[in-house]
Task: structure prediction
Amino acid sequence: MSSDKYEVVMGLEIHVELSTESKLFCSCSAKFGAEPNENVCPACCGMPGFPAVVNKRAVELGIAAGLVTNCEIAKVMTFDKKNYFYPDLPTGHQITQFFAPVCTNGYVELDSGKHITIKQIHIEEDAGKLVHEPRTRKTLVDFNRASVPLIEIVSNPDFRFADEVNEYLEKLRLLLSFAGISDCKMQEGSMRCDINISVREVGADKLGTRTELKNINSLKAIGRAIEYEAQRHIDTLETGSEKLVQETRGWDDDTGVSYSMREKEEAADYRYFPNPEILPVYIDDAWIEAVRNSLPEPAHEKFERMTARLGLPEYDSKIISGSQNLSRIFDGALECFDKAKDVSNWILGELLAVAKDSDIADDDISIDTAKFAAVIRLSHEGKINRTVGKKVLAEVLINDVDPEAYIEENSLGMVSDTGLLESAIRDVLSENEKSVAEYKAGSQKVFSFLVGQVMKKTAGKADPKSVNELLRKMLD
Amino acid sequence: MGLSVVLESSIMQKGLPATAGSKMLENFIAPVDATVVTRLEAAGVKISGRVDTSEFGAAGLFEDAAGGTATQGDGSLVFFAKTAQENRPLVLLCNDYTGGVSRAAVDAGLYYIQPSYGTVSRYGLIPSVGSMDQIGIVCENPEDGFEILEIISGYDAKDGVMLPNSSKTYEPQEVSSSFEIDIADMKSDYSGVYKQVMQILCSAELSNNISRYDGIKFGYRAKEYKDLNELYTKSRTEAFGEDVKLAAVTGAMVLYGDNYERYYNKAMCIRRLIKESLEFGEYDVIVSKCPILSRLCGLPSLSVPGGRVYTADALREDVLKAVSKSVINGNTSLTDDKELGGKIKAIRNQKSGE
Ligand SMILES: [Zn+2]
Result:
């Protein structure tokens, strides 16, 4: 893609599913991952006779999206109808915002200080999903996603490099997931990205012919798709053999090639008109302020707080502040146990490891933060050692046990009773005469082996520091 | 209450077919009771039957909607003429957005009450033209009609366009002979324009609302088709009648590309101008022979035998109730056609006119 002669110009249209409990115009659940057509009602599968009633929460999340991206919030917003036929669209039209969207004129600032300006953010309903069954050669429709609220964030053509696109997406993901607007999971389709791309000679005012890339579902794929498509534009301009066509193109990440979706383009006149069945929504300053006050601390401010005020390392702070879920756990635990460094170490060390062992993704960790804090405190106070702590933590995470009761019941409290430890060490030394001889002959390596044996004998409950001291004393 | 009510087939009763007069919905069984049904049943009103309308109520749309009488169409448009006097229901509920039913009703010697837009819930009403859809009342005796109106009207959270303050009781003010007819300054006779505006807006909205009938999920599906496009076109071609097809094509045309500005948006602007020009001031009702004025402006109206239509300000059903009493009492100034001469007039309330 690197070429001194040409400049790539890109704009992004990002669809983000809003984290509402229910759909945009009915009370069906909007949760991901249900059985096909489990979350449907007559209204969202297109039956007549069910007037749309706007989900107020969706409007609030739309306003919140505008606030975190420095947008102007509309005083009056309307819903409009976009007409097209497709089997996954139950009513034959999509309810969206065309004439008066909820937010306009915002921006996201990149690290370089450059502003990516946002033309508008509008609220709309998602469509269902077609499932093709090769065996029976039938196509089935799943309306679970039909009418789930989305926002579309439309940027101006401010991007010049793929890196900027990636940074913008990552920043948006943080802003939106932190504010609880969306979980922004590209793999699950709750964040989708279309890229408008064109190429022009450096210094030219006019934009070149633009194509729109669709179906890109990972950050990695975005970089590849941009590179491929920009090069395709440049090659076409250079050879002049064929003309660039303004069209929608799909991206096949397996073959690394974009392909024309022109067929769909031909009939595209959406006959937009204002939806007469939904009254305009008036947004007053009081409502905007209420939404603003309900927003949690944004990621970058949290990072500042963690590094500057709490004195945590940048690396740790970045990981925790970069995840809404880990931030929530951090803040929750910190409320019960105010040693920030311990809390952060336990999150990045034990908690993530324990979650990984159980195949729980970072964002899906759900733990009682008070109990988590109790485990950290018990370890800090020397009541349990770290190994036991990790074991207890796993129990808290999976079975929500009470840590103190669990330690009591399973007698996991740290053993620093010298008598008990000495007897355990004596046993170990007599069972491992060969290693003892090696140690005496000067091998330091076997020392840690012997410590391990003592820990094993005490079922991991021994205080490692005492074991160390006693073992040295008894060997020397 | 001894009243019994008949419902147009666009109003859902759970478990019964709700066809809206269309072959497209011949096997469509209503999944719920419409709010009006729930309210009637709660009030002990008997629902004695269902009657097919013209398909999606579109029959009156492309006739001379401005002043003429309905002469064509199926279902309820001729229902009254054909049904013998003694077999007629006392009250019929229907969605008469074109004004066609009300004209047929008054021709048959009945009254028609159009409530203010947003006062009767449309939950469970098969939609045709969202900006005008409104369940109205055909009745032999206006007193019965207003009694039913009190039962079915009032806020319903399931309909997003309900007026929050819609009143439920209509106490007629003192009127009887205290009205006098006065030619209001209505500038000109809009009726020709009304008709075109109606046709543009109604076909746009109807074409959109019936796009849900695609043969995929419910409703009629063609027996044979080779691909998706043919499934759509054959199902819709075979199941929709002429009026609805005309509306679908006209509607798609007026929204397409630049036509949006040329037709649809212009019609919207004219509708707004008409609304804004209707300042009731010291007048209580506008008298005309044009039922669509109230449809376009969302205002309540009363059509009486002989063809006169009294349109009142929003939420002023009480005025209409008073007018109906005057008409029944033989107040000639309210019924004399010579006074009207095809023009729109307004009735001044003497008390406020002083
Ligand atoms: Zn639903």
Summary: DSSP finds 13 helices and ten strands in chain B.
